[in-house]
From TrEMBL:
UniProt lineage: Eukaryota, Viridiplantae, Chlorophyta, Mamiellophyceae, Mamiellales
Binding-site positions, substrate: R86, R92, N124, R158
Name of the molecule in the record: Malate dehydrogenase
Species assigned in the record: Micromonas pusilla (strain CCMP1545) (Picoplanktonic green alga)
Assigned GO CC terms: mitochondrion
A single MF term (Gene Ontology): L-malate dehydrogenase (NAD+) activity
The Lactate/malate dehydrogenase N-terminal domain, residue ranges: 8-150
Keywords per UniProt: NAD, Oxidoreductase, Tricarboxylic acid cycle
Amino acid sequence: MTQTRGYKVAVLGAAGGIGQPCGLLMKMNPLVTELSLYDIAGTPGVAADVSHINTAAQVKGYAGDAELGAALKDADLVIIPAGVPRKPGMTREDLFKINAGIVAGLTEACATHCPNAMINMISNPVNSTVPIAAEVLKKRGAYDPKKLFGVTTLDVVRAKTFYAEKNGLETAKVDVPVVGGHAGITILPLLSQATPKAEMDAATIEALTKRTQDGGTEVVAAKAGKGSATLSMAYAGAVFADSCLRAKNGEAGVVECTYVESNVTDARFFASKVTLGKEGVETIHGLGELTPYEKAGLDGMMAELNDSINKGVEFAKAL
Ligand code: NAI
């Protein structure tokens, strides 16, 4: 469990709504010795600001294509929240046209400059951006399915908060697995497996499930055109990145729900509980026993999830 070494973490999209607080939180992580903040513009200012915090990580800002290689060089972990967020009326799928190209370009650079890095993909639509990244890395001979993660931690964070609130439980002690993907009905909280266990009627379970699925839309509507979740996402991204770093550092038993290449269902990529290890994914856990309501949710998502996966794969193959 002791720290063997520090790690280089790169945040791509570091001047954005998620990137800035995510950089701040990674600066506070004791396992980070080098923090690389990359964006197309604006990162010198963000890096100067964050660098004044008196923690160990050395912060450097990199702006524009010409500096991407240096930003990524030998990074251990790359967090990608680059791209456009949703506006009211948009689904995550609507972001595909813009974000697919951004993610492909950044992943390609990872293959060149840090082929052994763990990649934490935040850019939406995650259901497609992870398959895009996988195909791009594969083309470059740098794909290790154990090291590519779609970050679905915000769904878990939301499910925990809503479940705790509804049942009067201490939020910090609550756990709720969330499986599937990261868009609408593909987000499936397994409330029957939530701990501590609370008795809930069918209507409450349905309301909590829908609120978790629509959590992102709740924020998009409240921000009224000014973007989507940034602060809670930065928190969730930092939690997931910290889990990856702790596992890399030798801590045993680190478990997170995350969207990875998987055999749990017939979808090639699927989010479920994963035990993380030094080399990334160690064990992908099955779904456990599902209630009829959860089973129906699982069956109901598969067509959409597979479509989003195929869309990503086809996009990357056509590049
Ligand atoms: P934002 O617009 O505030 O920031 C995005 C940043 O990416 C900007 O600073 C922009 O300059 C940068 N960027 C664009 N192209 C780039 C490139 N080629 N290389 C590097 N940086 C580039 O957006 P925000 O709110 O930070 O959201 C970012 C992404 O995260 C969106 O795709 C959003 O949908 C997604 N997201 C994912 C969540 C999840 O649970 N996985 C939750 C919330 C948002």
